Amino acid sequence: MAEHRSMQRAALLDAARSLLSEGGTEALTFPALAERTGLARSSVYEYFRSRAAVVEELCEVDFPVWAAEVEAAMARAATPEGKVEAYVRQQLALVGDRRHRAVVAISASELDAGAREKIRAAHGSLVAMIVQALREMGHGEPRLAAMLLQGVVDAAVRRIELGAAEVPSAITEAAVGMALRGVGGGGR
Questions:
Q1: Which residues contact 129 (CB under 8 A, 6 or more apart)?
Q2: pLDDT, averaged in runs of 10, over the chain (188 residues)
Q3: What's the confidence (pLDDT) of residue 100?
Q4: What is the pLDDT of residue 2?
Q5: HSE of 90 in the Cβ direction (CA atoms, 13 Å)?
Q6: Which helix or strand (DSSP H or E) is residue 54 part of?
Q7: 125, 133, 140, 117: which is closest to 179 by C-alpha?
Q8: Measured between alpha carbons, how far is residue 107 from residues 58, 112, 180 in Å?
Q9: Is pTM, for the whole model, over 0.70?
C-alpha cells in the first residue's frame, strides 16, 4: 500500500511539472492533475491539501537535484573564476529542463507564505554555493556579490524563458561576461 501511494504521489508531481512547464501556475489545478494521472479529483486531495502544497513538495524534491547539478559543475572548475562561470552556465543550461521550468513558473506565481519561504530558502542555498569563490576572488562583500550575481542569472533565465530576440547562447555568454567582468567587460 505504501509503495502504491508513493507511486501515485510521484505521478502527481510529474503531472504537476508538466502542467507548470506547459501552462504556468494557472494550468496547475486539481482537475488537471486528476486528468493527467487518471485519478479522481477527490483522490488528489488525499495526497495534497492545496495547490501550494503541491508547489512546496515540488520545491523540496526538485530544487536539491537542480542545486546538486550546479554544485557538481562548480566542483569540476579549478579556479574561483571557473566556479563562477560554472555557476552561471549550469543554471542557464538547466533552463530547458522540466524541473527548472516548473520552479520558474512556481516562483512567478502567487503563493502562500510557506511556499514562498521554501523557494527563498532554496535560492538562498544556491547563492551560498558561490560565496566562497567570490571571497577567493577577493570580493570585499562576497555574500552581497553572490546575491547580485544570482540576480544576473535570474534575469538571464527570464530572458531565455521569454524567448527573447537573442539566442540562448548569446544570453549565456552575456551573463557569464557580466559575472566575470561586470557591465564594462563586454561579452566573451
A1: 67, 70, 71, 74, 87
A2: 88 90 82 94 91 82 87 96 96 78 60 69 82 93 93 89 82 94 59
A3: 64
A4: 85
A5: 22
A6: helix 51-75
A7: 133
A8: 11, 11, 26
A9: yes
- Report which of 168, 34, 35, 16 is spatially closest to residue 106, judged by C-alpha positions: 16
d(CA 52, CA 56): 6
Counting beta carbons within 10 angstroms of the beta carbon of residue 110, is it exposed (0 to 12), middle (13 to 18) or buried (19 or more)?
A: exposed
| Alpha helix (H) residue ranges in 94-185 | 98-107, 113-136, 142-161, 168-181
Q: What is the pLDDT of residue 50?
A: 86
To the nearest 10°, the Cα dihedral for 130, 135, 136, 137?
90
**Whole-number Cα distances in Å, 117 to 86, 120, 148:** 26, 5, 19
Taking the C-alpha atoms of residue 29 and residue 7, their distance in angstroms, rounded to an integer, is 20
Q: Take residue 23 and report the three cell numbers written for it.
A: 501552462
